[in-house]
Design a protein that fits this description.
Radius of gyration: 21 Å
Shape: elongated
Structural class: mainly beta
Helix content: 10-25%
Number of strands: 10
Number of helices: 1
Amino acid sequence: MEAKKVFATTILVTVILGSTQVMAAVDKGSFTFAFGFSVRGTTEFRLGNSNTSCDTIADTWRYNENHILDNKGHYCMELEEKAWFGKRYSGEYHLADGYRHTSWLGKIKKATYVVNLGTNDDLGPSSRQIKGVGTIYQ
């Protein structure tokens, strides 16, 4: 009787694992940015009806200098649908510290989007800006 339970469990696990598909995220395009308060994107990304994330790597720089600052700013990215009254999907704020951060945007609808970025820090008086790169995945 015990051997039958083990055999049945093994068959069940095999069927479940055999039918599971692992979906890898696909790179949908990259972008670069540099801003002191916010920037509205111009590069268009054609995205499908799918779960979407965006990886960014950014750091806080002295404006017009090649100098990374210790006093780090924060930034947030969003996808904005290119349509009248288009939907926006926003990520969370990240520290512009030179490390990779992921914004999970959830399932978005099929459309064309641009990437906007902004900060809730007052970077201007200290001549700071946030510069970085990002990649959209679905």
